[in-house]
């Protein structure tokens, strides 16, 4: 001890973080039965059957579509797909688990040895994927004053669990990794990964070690984080807590399972961490091992679209987009498809970016909806841009009155222009009359322009546009005004 401080207080520490991401697979039925897989806002306990409720004598049958979507997600994460995998029973007794065990995969998973790379500002981060395996979900507990209510609609829902290597070192890195996984799952159509609907959640394992060391110390696993914000905050809090323990010479003495209190902004102890022996894994006796045909895998590979990172790079290199615009447009496959359809139709990536990333996205963010839930189709957006490029309407009118009416009513832009009489005026005679009037009524700005203050002409052009109700051809107004002055 020096001056009342431990030696550890003079050391630098680093966090070591691994994530388990649970994502609901987008199938019509559950993992091992025919029950509806959609439990969102449904009456409790209506999507259940003897199989997903674990009644005696009922045999589970593997959902083929869930397996295929798991394979596609694994391939998109650069995982290896072995020819054989099997299901196992993971035994634990929770009130929301009707069977008393979970059907999961232990030592022979669907896939393994993958990786993913993503940007963190000016650097790239690569995270290894230990495995992506399949399992079924438990039900849902709602805690009330005098007890707990159990809804088994979600019991048996097909899940993929994506287990990372402990390659992350901050809450920001873990959040960026989780967001990239979400993009990939949505791109390949394996999961909607909608956290508001409980379709994606995280378990984060956090440990601390002195900087420069490579050993893995005891970890705390933060369970059931259901938002990116909670994931980041919980990890950063736990890093601080464990660092303080190290500094006073009392690091974690064993693995533990902890929870996150979002209101208090702190973690809390739940129990000692279960290990594989505690779950008493054994091969699921009612489900035969799965044989994954290599031809099937090769066929599924052909359906994997261009991934977000590759798409972002292409947008920047081939279309000249700035990084922020490319990141936004490549972040959601539906938005990317919309953008590319507009670019193909108009050959104008600059205006496509301007209208989608600013005008359209402003409305989507205000209403908290995605691009599929609004009325302006890619075809309508293309038509609007063509009207500008042909000189029929001005850019300002298109972004303002015309687009607002399109968004509100779903009407075609040509129809709106005709109805409201918004066609751009390119009549040089009419523009000359308006310019002359503005010059006569604004001697001060005219004198300023003649004295070398070039900005003054912007005011005069604005007044002409106002005089002509925004319908004058801006380029013609600019040329006419300069000529007359």
What can you tell me about this protein's structure?
It is a single chain. This protein has 485 residues and is of the alpha+beta class. It has three domains: 7-298, no CATH class; 308-420, no CATH class; 428-484, Arc Repressor Mutant, subunit A (Orthogonal Bundle), CATH 1.10.10. It contains 16 helices and 15 strands. Residues 1-7 have low confidence and may be disordered.
Q: Give the total of beta strands.
A: 15
Give helix % range: 40-55%
Strand content: 15-25%
What characterizes the major β-sheet? Answer: 8 strands, mixed
Return Rg in Å.
30 Å
The general outline is: elongated
- Which strands sit side by side, in order, in the main sheet? 5-6-9-1-10-11-12-13
Unreliable segments of 5+ consecutive residues: 1-7
Main attributes of the structure:
single chain, about 475 residues, alpha+beta, Arc Repressor Mutant, subunit A, 3-stranded antiparallel β-sheet, 16 helices
Q: How is this fold's topology laid out?
A:
Layout: E1 13-24, H1 64-76, E2 84-85, E3 88-91, E4 101-104, E5 111-120, E6 123-136, E7 140-144, E8 147-151, E9 158-164, H2 171-188, E10 200-210, E11 220-225, H3 228-247, E12 256-261, E13 266-272, H4 276-279, E14 282-283, E15 290-291, H5 294-301, H6 308-319, H7 323-330, H8 333-346, H9 349-367, H10 378-389, H11 395-409, H12 413-420, H13 428-441, H14 443-450, H15 456-467, H16 474-484
Parallel strand pairs: 11-12
Antiparallel strand pairs: 1-9, 1-10, 2-15, 3-4, 3-14, 5-6, 6-9, 7-8, 10-11, 12-13
């Amino acid at each position: 001890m020096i001056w009342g401080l431990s030696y550890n207080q003079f050391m630098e520490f680093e966090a070591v973080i691994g994530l388990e991401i649970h994502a609901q697979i987008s199938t019509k039925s559950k993992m091992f039965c025919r029950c509806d897989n959609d439990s969102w806002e449904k009456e409790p306990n209506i999507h259940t059957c003897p199989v997903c409720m674990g009644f005696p004598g009922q045999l589970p049958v593997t959902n083929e579509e869930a397996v295929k979507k798991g394979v596609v997600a694994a391939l998109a994460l650069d995982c290896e797909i072995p020819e054989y995998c099997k299901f196992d029973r993971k035994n634990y007794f929770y009130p929301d688990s009707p069977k008393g065990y979970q059907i999961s995969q232990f030592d022979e998973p669907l896939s393994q040895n993958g990786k993913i790379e993503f940007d963190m500002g000016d650097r790239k981060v690569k995270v290894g994927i230990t495995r992506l395996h399949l399992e079924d979900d438990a039900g849902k507990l709602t805690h009330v004053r005098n007890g707990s209510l159990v809804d088994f609609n979600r019991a048996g829902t097909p899940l993929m669990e994506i287990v990372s290597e402990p390659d992350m070192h901050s809450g920001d890195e873990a959040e960026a990794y989780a967001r990239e996984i979400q993009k990939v799952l949505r791109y390949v159509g394996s999961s909607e990964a909608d956290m508001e609907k409980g379709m994606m959640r995280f378990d984060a394992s956090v440990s601390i070690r002195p900087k420069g060391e490579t050993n893995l110390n005891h970890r705390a696993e933060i369970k059931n984080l259901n938002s990116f914000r909670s994931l980041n905050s919980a990890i950063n809090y736990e890093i601080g807590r464990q660092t303080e323990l190290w500094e006073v010479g009392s690091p974690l003495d064993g693995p533990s399972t902890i929870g996150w209190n979002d209101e208090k902004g702190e973690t809390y102890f739940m129990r000692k961490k279960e290990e594989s022996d505690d779950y008493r894994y054994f091969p699921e006796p009612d489900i035969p091992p799965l044989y994954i045909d290599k031809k099937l895998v090769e066929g599924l590979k052909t359906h994997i679209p261009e991934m977000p990172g590759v798409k972002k790079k292409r947008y920047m290199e081939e279309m000249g987009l700035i990084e922020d615009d490319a990141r936004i447009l490549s972040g959601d496959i539906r938005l990317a498809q919309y953008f590319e359809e507009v670019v193909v139709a108009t050959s104008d990536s600059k205006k496509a970016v301007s209208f989608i990333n600013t005008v359209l996205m402003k409305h989507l963010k205000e209403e908290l909806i995605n691009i599929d839930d609004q009325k302006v189709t890619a075809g309508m957006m293309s038509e609007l841009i063509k009207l500008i490029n042909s000189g029929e309407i001005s850019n300002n009118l298109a972004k303002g009155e015309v687009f607002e009416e399109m968004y509100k009513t779903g009407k075609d832009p040509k129809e709106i222009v005709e109805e409201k009489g918004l066609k751009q005026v390119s009549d040089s005679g009419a523009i000359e009359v308006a310019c002359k009037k503005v010059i006569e009524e604004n001697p001060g700005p005219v004198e300023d322009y003649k004295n070398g203050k070039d900005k003054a002409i912007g005011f005069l052009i604005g007044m002409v546009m106002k005089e002509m109700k925004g319908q004058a051809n801006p380029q013609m107004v600019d040329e006419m005004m300069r000529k007359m002055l």
